């Protein structure tokens, strides 16, 4: 039985639904639920009722509501592509009903930007006892970058020492300022303090203060800034030989200027303010006035390049490899009507789900992507739209 319940109907969910719909051999039946049922109905109309057989309204902040829906649909797996705030209620619902779980981003409390796995890892024993599995962070970064690291460790090194994950969006959507995935989560991630792992401890940096100009294959040189990203936490735990792990993301000057102004005037704050007798969270309001990331696909040009530099030792010699994918915004739009950031997240979520349902990756408990054998997942990336390359190279980092 390979019936899935997908929760969320935003940019990433659109890709997951369409990719799952193309693969009846992995996903016999798709059910789709979200806060706004009209968005589910729209996706159902695009894909066809024969593939998305049921649509439902659900408030996934409420574990009981999700559990009731799971009892009604009886899926083998819940694919959570709503927001990180819903991770724990959906995991609670999976525990209550004995159904497997997958997501693409770690749980976030509403009132503080944390980006850490502690809450979800705390479910490990309960999932194990119940005989169900949770796969965490099955997007691109986290997700594919974790699998790239596991693949490098398995096939190219005896021991891995230095890890630099790089995320470049070399595309142009023609808007003055927009985020490529949920603006609230994206801006929370970028405006928090930077953090990297070195010699057994975390080191903090001011937000967007450490820069390297990196040359990305098929994109060119782009200013790249050190950020904290959640996969660093699980990777340094699961690969204890790592001496230093960092994450870099590209931002253009125009984007950073807008972000600075918004920050300076208080629009990126997650602390509620009083406005005409109501409590309003500035960042939530900002989200409401920014372009919907799903609407950026039309006319979006250029490539993304996301990958992992790994330096380590093989047969006593140090070497560096870069594993990466290039993804073209316009090709994604032609295939599934999405931009590349949604696509590079949705395709791995679909592949992760297929790996679980076919029991390539299946063990009770709560797991990160690098804890499984990477080979079949890497094959499926090539097969389902995210082909990757491996090159041996010099480390491009100055420090
Ligand atoms: P969107 O904002 O486009 O979509 C989120 C969807 O979740 C919307 O349909 C929204 O409903 C729904 N939703 C929100 N709250 C609830 C609720 N309480 N109950 C039910 N549904 C709810 O986000 P994206 O598609 O851009 O992102 C989806 C997820 O993917 C996020 O968790 C994001 O962090 C993650 N992500 C991961 C990446 C990776 O590489 N690992 C990269 C990019 C994103 P409504 O339409 O009513 O607002």
UniProtKB/TrEMBL annotation:
The Saccharopine dehydrogenase NADP binding domain sits at 4-135
Signal peptide range in chain numbering: none
Record domain Saccharopine dehydrogenase-like C-terminal: where = 139-386
Pfam families cross-referenced by the UniProt entry: Sacchrp_dh_C, Sacchrp_dh_NADP
Q: What is this protein called?
A: Saccharopine dehydrogenase
